[in-house]
């Protein structure tokens, strides 16, 4: 009888950990990059491969990085929200076109509108990996010193803008 107690105890412990893990929202997984400098990048613009943008070009201002792709269904859901938010000029929004084809990304922006000051082209997904992206869409708020202050996983909704992003932007720009 005693020989069954250890395996039973291990099974119960694993069941408890699994049960706790299943109750967590995957969008609430904290990023290890919060409070750390944004990764360095030097990427070509989606609209013009001869132009590029570096992290250093964005220092001195608060900005938002939205990781998106034309093949992403959730990105299509959030896109009208970003277009409307960009019209309000609250913060410069930069896009990171992630693991996409340039013609597809350009066509997508022509069809749905372009909320981005510039969209960077990350065909191989290397910069996305540096930012810890494991799915699109993901959105980062980066402060004037180039430090990541917030990460939102999943589509941006009007509620997310009002309750998460805009208060963070007011705090950083205040």
Number of DSSP E strands = 7
Tally of structural domains: 1
SSE pattern, N- to C-terminal: HEEEHEHEHEEH
Q: What's the oligomerization state?
A: single chain
Q: Total number of helical segments? A: 5
Please indicate the percent range of residues in DSSP E strands (runs of 2 or more).
15-25%
- CATH homologous group name: Glutaredoxin
What is the general shape?
globular
For the termini, the CA-CA separation is 66 Å
Average the pLDDT over all residues and give the rounded result. Answer: 90
- Return the structural class: alpha/beta
Percentage of helical residues? 25-40%
For the largest sheet, list the strands in their spatial order.
Answer: 5-4-3-6-7
Low-confidence stretches: none
CATH topology tier name? Glutaredoxin
| The CATH top-level class label | Alpha Beta
CA radius of gyration: 19 Å
Keywords:
alpha/beta, Glutaredoxin, five-stranded mixed beta sheet, 174 residues, 7 strands, two-stranded antiparallel sheet, 5 helices
Provide an overview of this structure:
There is one protein chain. By secondary structure, the protein is α/β, with parallel strands linked by helices. The chain has a single domain (28-173), classed as Glutaredoxin, CATH 3.40.30. Helix content is 37%, strand content 20%. It has 5 helices and 7 strands, in the order αβββαβαβαββα. The protein has helices spanning 5-22, 73-87, 102-112, 126-130, 158-173, and strands spanning 42-44, 52-54, 63-68, 93-98, 118-122, 138-142, 148-153. The strands form 2 sheets. A 5-stranded mixed sheet has the order 5-4-3-6-7. The protein has a two-stranded antiparallel ribbon with strand order 1-2. The longest helix has 18 residues, at 5-22. It is globular and about 70 Å long. The mean pLDDT is 90.
């Amino acid at each position: 009888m005693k020989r069954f107690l250890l395996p039973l105890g291990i099974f119960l412990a694993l069941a408890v950990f699994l049960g706790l893990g299943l109750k967590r929202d995957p969008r609430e997984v904290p990023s290890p990059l919060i409070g750390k400098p944004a990764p360095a990048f030097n990427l070509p613009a989606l609209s013009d491969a001869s132009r590029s943008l570096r992290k250093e070009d964005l220092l001195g201002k608060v900005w938002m990085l939205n990781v998106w792709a034309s093949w992403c269904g959730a990105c299509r859901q959030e896109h009208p929200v970003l277009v409307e938010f960009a019209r309000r000029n609250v913060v410069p929004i930069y896009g990171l076109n992630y693991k996409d084809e340039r013609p597809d990304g350009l066509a997508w922006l022509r069809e749905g509108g372009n909320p981005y000051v510039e969209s960077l082209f990350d065909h191989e997904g290397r910069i996305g990996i540096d930012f810890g992206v494991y799915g699109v869409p993901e959105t980062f708020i980066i402060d004037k010193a180039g430090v990541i202050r917030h990460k939102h996983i999943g589509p941006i909704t009007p509620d997310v803008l009002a309750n998460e992003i805009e208060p963070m932007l007011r705090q950083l720009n205040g």
